[in-house]
Amino acid sequence: MKLEVSVWDFIGLKLDVYKVLTDYKKVTMETWSASLTDDDNYDTVFAVKTINPTVKKVVVSNDGDYLNRLTLEEVKNKSTIYVEMDIDNGYALHYCQLKSDIGSFVFRGLNEKREIVQATY
Can you tell which superkingdom this protein's organism belongs to (predicted)? Predict the structure, then answer.
């Protein structure tokens, strides 16, 4: 599946909450945005752009481990938000509706062996 939208197309949208993270050393950019809906949910978009060829998947979570000491299984168990995205042509994009827990997201890049090769928060 090819993504027909650029990660950065979302920056121009009306956003209630958003954050853009850039790690120039690892050449990865992550962003998320959340907009409160009429039914008190948050329309949420996570997006990643990378030219790091070792990153095959990205995990977004809210486990709070900014020092990257946890295994993926521990991250999943500690998180109320856990999203796994495949990288396609350097991009990954995910939309979901969340009830709460907006913010404090950690983005982890995984290689083909599912090892964490980089993390950004």
Answer: Bacteria
